[in-house]
């Protein structure tokens, strides 16, 4: 039986998410994307916080409806670790976690160093290494990344492709598969 796992890389401005399915030790890529709140549109902290909460409150249930995850794994950021952004990241994570609880979906936190160690065998892996590993693992994602870069370039934008937060969320989801598979074997 397949287990659907949603990985999230919470943030107020960029909230990355990626779904994977684990069946017979095989991981398949599902939907992935980003909830993004442009900071420049909200000059005041409280206005920005309210906009972030509203956006996640509206979009996260849609994602849950599309993905229908059995479990959610989220990168855990210790309070204060991000300085002035810590409150925003904590708020984004708390809103999504509350919605998951309302939907009856298990939520698991995992530290960045832990998921990087599980997925890349390197707890300090760089963003570039994470991105390249995910592109190597999922050729369809590599094609999408390349196409998005070409589109961005043709529209006169900086050609960055898929946002890094999506790759991080995918890493979190893959780590969730590994942890879930180990707990199934021990149970």
What do you see in this structure?
By secondary structure, the chain is an alpha/beta fold. The chain has a single domain (3-186), classed as Nucleotidyltransferase, domain 5 (2-Layer Sandwich). It is built from six helices and five strands. Strands 3-2-1-4-5 form a five-stranded mixed β-sheet. Helix 1 packs parallel to helix 2, helix 3 (112-120) crosses helix 6 and helix 4 (127-137) crosses helix 6 (164-186). The longest helix is centred in the N-terminal third of the chain and has 23 residues, at 45-67. The relative contact order is 0.20.
List low-pLDDT spans.
none
**Largest sheet: spatial strand order:** 3-2-1-4-5
- Look at the structure and give the CATH class: Alpha Beta
* CATH topology heading: Nucleotidyltransferase, domain 5
- Could you describe the largest sheet, including whether it forms a barrel? 5 strands, mixed
Q: In whole angstroms, how far apart are the ends?
A: 16 Å
The tally of strands reads 5
Tell me the series of helices and strands, N- to C-terminal: EEEHEHEHHHH
Give me the Rg, rounded: 16 Å
User: Number of DSSP helices?
Assistant: 6
The average pLDDT is 90
How does the helix and strand content classify structurally? alpha/beta
The CATH H-level superfamily is Ribonuclease H-like superfamily/Ribonuclease H
Strand content: 15-25%
CATH architecture descriptor name: 2-Layer Sandwich
Shape: globular
Q: How many domain modules?
A: 1
């Amino acid at each position: 039986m397949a287990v659907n796992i949603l990985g999230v890389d919470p943030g107020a401005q960029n909230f990355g998410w990626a779904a994977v399915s684990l069946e017979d030790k095989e991981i398949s890529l599902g939907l992935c994307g980003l909830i993004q709140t442009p900071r420049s549109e909200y000059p005041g902290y409280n206005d920005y916080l309210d906009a972030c909460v509203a956006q996640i409150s509206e979009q996260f249930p849609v994602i849950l409806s599309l993905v229908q995850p059995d479990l959610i794994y989220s990168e855990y950021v210790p309070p204060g670790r991000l300085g002035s952004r810590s409150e925003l990241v904590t708020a984004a994570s708390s809103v999504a976690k509350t919605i998951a609880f309302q939907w009856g979906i298990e939520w698991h936190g995992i530290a960045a160093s832990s998921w990087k160690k599980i997925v890349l065998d390197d707890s300090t892996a760089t963003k570039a290494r994470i991105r390249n590993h995910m592109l190597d693992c999922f050729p369809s994602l590599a094609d999408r990344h390349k196409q998005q870069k070409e589109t961005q370039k043709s529209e006169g934008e900086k050609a960055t492709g898929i946002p890094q937060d999506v790759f991080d969320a995918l890493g979190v989801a893959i780590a969730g598969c590994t942890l879930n598979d180990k707990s199934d074997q021990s149970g």
